[in-house]
């Protein structure tokens, strides 16, 4: 993937900035929630979204640098800033995956899966995502030591398709785990506001999946001439899904009092009409 073009567009960078703004606000609310009640899942979710926020910030900063300095794609010795941003972003994304699975293991600790396995799943998942971080770190370090490797990757860190797929598989695992256990808990819930909360968490998980599917599609579609510069509309929609992931994740886990009251009122209204 070292030779793939990456030319940031104003529209893409604007969408990144909007995403960062919304995610930062949600993270702030989650940390406030943790400080109010000291519940560990709130802290895990806050760190999961914070690390994802750091990923977006890294991609945006290096995209801006790329836009300003406008390096020639594929030219040996030209610093491909956008590629550094993407690699660093994926490293933070892997850390976010780790925290997502820890969050799932905490809120669904009483599920049969986690009663049997305890912390084995989040620990094993952490190790696997650590491999992603290691591969990315190695690629970045090699790009900064061009005398030891192929000059084509000088200041142009690789991110091979296999590595991309590996990270995507781990991400799908994290969010599917969240979705499946939330669906199970929703089915067992009695109150409408509880069902809504689990539904919101499921939407958060689906949005998280779409983020990476769209990012992967943005990469693959670069082989099509019209989309050859990268940073396509699919990436922009992916950033929007990131906003939805965080908003629905917060709403589902915290279930703000006004939202809870609204569902309770609707439930009471239905009961009275029966």
Report on this model:
The protein is mainly alpha-helical and 274 residues long. The protein has one domain (10-273): Up-down Bundle (Rhopdopsin 7-helix transmembrane proteins). 77% of the residues lie in helices and 0% in strands.
What is the compact description of this entry?
The protein is mainly α and 274 residues long.
List keywords for this structure.
single chain; 274 residues; mainly alpha; Rhopdopsin 7-helix transmembrane proteins; 77% helix; elongated; disordered N terminus
Outline the secondary-structure elements:
Blueprint: H1 10-37, H2 40-69, H3 81-107, H4 112-117, H5 120-143, H6 161-188, H7 192-220, H8 233-254, H9 257-273
Overall pLDDT score: 88
Q: Helices and strands, in N-to-C order? A: HHHHHHHHH
- Under CATH at level 1, the class stands as Mainly Alpha
How many helices? The count is 9
For the record, the CATH architecture stands as Up-down Bundle
Quaternary arrangement of the chains shown? single chain
The total beta strand count reads 0
Shape: elongated
Main sheet characteristics: none
Question: Level of helix content?
Answer: over 70%
**Span between termini:** 61 Å
CATH fold name: Rhopdopsin 7-helix transmembrane proteins
Low-confidence stretches: 1-5
Rg (C-alpha, Å):
20 Å
Number of domains: 1
Sheet-strand content, in percent, reads under 5%
């Amino acid at each position: 993937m070292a030779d793939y073009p990456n030319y940031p567009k104003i529209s893409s960078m604007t969408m990144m900035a909007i995403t960062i703004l919304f995610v930062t606000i949600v993270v702030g609310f989650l940390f406030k929630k943790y400080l109010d009640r000291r519940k560990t899942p709130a802290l895990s979710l806050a760190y999961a979204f914070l690390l994802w926020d750091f990923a977006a910030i890294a991609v945006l900063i290096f995209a801006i640098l790329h836009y300003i300095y406008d390096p020639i794609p594929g030219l040996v010795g030209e610093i491909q800033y956008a590629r550094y941003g993407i690699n660093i972003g994926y490293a933070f994304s892997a850390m976010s995956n780790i925290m997502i699975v820890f969050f799932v293991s905490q809120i669904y600790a009483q599920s049969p899966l986690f009663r049997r396995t305890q912390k084995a799943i989040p620990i094993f998942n952490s190790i696997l995502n650590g491999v992603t971080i290691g591969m990315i770190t190695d690629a970045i370090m090699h790009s900064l030591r061009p005398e030891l490797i192929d000059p084509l990757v000088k200041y142009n860190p690789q991110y091979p398709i296999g590595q991309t797929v590996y990270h995507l598989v781990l991400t799908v695992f994290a969010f599917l785990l969240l979705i499946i256990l939330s669906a199970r808990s929703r089915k067992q819930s009695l109150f409408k506001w509880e069902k809504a909360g689990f539904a919101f968490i499921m939407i958060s998980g689906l949005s998280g999946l779409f983020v990476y599917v769209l990012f992967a599609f943005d990469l693959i579609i670069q082989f099509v001439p019209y989309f050859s510069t990268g940073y396509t509309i699919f990436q922009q929609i992916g950033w929007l899904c990131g906003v939805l992931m965080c908003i629905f994740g917060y709403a589902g886990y915290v279930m703000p009092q006004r939202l809870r009251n609204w569902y309770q009122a609707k439930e009471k209204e239905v009961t009275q009409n029966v």
